[in-house]
Amino acid sequence: MMVDASVNFSILLLLLPVLNSSRISQTPEAVIVRPKGSSSLSCSHNTSNVFYMYWYRRPAQSRALTLVGYLYSGTANLETDFTNDRFSLQGNAGSRGDLQISNPTTEDSGEYFCATREAHCSRFSSFLYKNPSLWYITQFIVFDWQ
What is the end-to-end Cα distance of the chain in Å, rounded? Predict the structure, then answer.
């Protein structure tokens, strides 16, 4: 009997990371939109300790990532280059966040990434420590066909 209990406990320990794994999804996987159109990219997750959701863009033909903005709880914060009427963030970061792009130009084409970070309070200080991010991608193409 003791062997069966220890085997079951060992299996449970092996499965614990899988059972406790975070699930995150970003939709749609690809977008083709005309200039003057609009699109919404959505990111959702099932992690309970997430307070931050970040959106990044990697322009076409580039390797550099640019932070578009982030959600902290229910507050949207856009970076300076994106504080125009064309980009907006909505959501609560605790479960879902959306990046809306209106009147896109061809310069907006590229890959858009959603990232979430779990936050944990340290008992030695009052700042938040953020764990490594989970990343997902959407191909966003602005195509001006006649």
Answer: 75
